[in-house]
Amino acid sequence: MLSTKKAFRGGMLFGAFEGHPAGPVESVALPEKILVPLQQGVDGPVQSQVEVHDRVVRGQIIGRCPADAQAPVHSPVCGTVEQVGNLEGVAPEVVCINVEDSEDTVGGQPLGADFRSRPAHEVAEVLFQAGVASMHHDGIPVSRNTRGVDPGNLDTLIVAAMETGVLAVSPETLVGLRVQDLATGIGVLAHALQVEQAHIAVDDESPQFASRLEGCLATEPNVRIHRLGGVYPRHWDEPLTAALAGRRVPNDGRACDVGVVCVDLQTALAAFDAVVRGLPVIEQLLILGGPGYTRAGVVRAPIGMRVGDLIGPRLRQDMEVRLVEGGLLSGRSLDPDKRVVTRELRRIDALREDRERTLLAFLRPGRALHSYGRTFLSHWRASDPLRCDSNLHGEKRPCISCAACDEVCPRELLPYWLSRQVRSNKAQAALGFELHACIECGLCSYVCPSKIPLMEDIQQGKTQVATEQVRA
Ligand code: SF4
Ligand code: SF4
After folding, report:
1. Residue 99, SS3 per DSSP
2. Paired residues of 380 in beta bridges
3. Is residue 93 part of a domain?
4. pTM, rounded to two decimals
5. Residue 108 scores a pLDDT above 90
6. For residue 46, how far is its CA from the centre of ligand 1 (angstroms)?
7. Between 376 and 18, residue with greater pLDDT
8. Is 249 in the pocket of ligand 1 (CB under 6 A)?
9. How many CA atoms lie less than 13 Å away from 29 in the CB half-sphere?
């Protein structure tokens, strides 16, 4: 066991924002209906195994791929199937269940804490049947759904036991008392994937959590814990693979293309639940951050719960709110009536909606307005929470060649140059400047004092290139 510091290029450390989520994790009351999509995580759609009026039990498989190429989908509750099909625009195929007040649960056969005595393929099969294999960005290439990756070429596991960015939540809040479960879950994944080494990234702002995890992993010979600063987007797959495994994720590629599997805390905990306790993926920990909530925090919610039912009681009624999933810098708006909790949903932030146009905003740096510039008042009053709203705080202006976008880019790109090529209809020329190396973290757009939508231009460039390739 070894703790190390690693060097990263670019990125940004955010201060405290209003509506910062904190623990403990709360459970939510079950709604009357649950809408379980038959396509979740990185997997393709599966076929319903239930019919209208069937009674289902918590943990029961309700969706399966006939060729067993996609992980199954389970019922998160006990109840009666009311409908199967395209319901209320939620997803192409959904199982709607009327919820019963019952805790009856069925699961797989747990392998228990002695999982290492079982062959790796058996443990991998449990992860697949429990739905863990379709979690995180790229899934876990085990048994049947390897997604074109040869599991024999994988040699490294990276666990991001930290979060970075605006409204990042601490690992203590997410994991709570389950540090030993997390350590065991990491062991489960390492055994199932038969990797030679595992790297765990922890935030050096969470020393107690890091020490407890180190204690739990003390006897693991091939695990290294790395204490990293909370600079965004340090917990993403690409920066971690470069810094911890010394390999560059190829442009438009995945970490597993270079032999690395990256997972987050929830995936490691789900691996523990599946293999040691026999529980499939039927609930999610969701981070609710931002000033739009009466109480920002973390909740445990069943898969299939409508976001509106989940956050409705917590939303502030005295402000207009914009809901964002996937992080404030790189995510997208969501409709609470059409979005339900799924295996890939990790956070829902609620911003203050602010459409007011502020003239010459750059001349009026307030103490609650964040800026990359060190001249802003907020830089000197770092302990004051910063405003968290949807306003751009200024108009788009010409580039002033400040190089702020180059400085923060974690992929060492020249965002303004890429954006200019795309806006001059020369997306093909931008390929020579590694257009596809952009991981769409959104930092360049965020720091630009001239409010140039750099990341959006780059995304548009990628779409243009793809369209041209299809035409050719
Ligand atoms: S160019 Fe891409 S990777 Fe670089 S800062 Fe902008 S969005 Fe992030
Ligand atoms: S941050 Fe904006 S103003 Fe500064 S160099 Fe980049 S594009 Fe130009």
Report:
1. strand
2. none
3. no
4. 0.92
5. no
6. 35
7. 18
8. no
9. 6
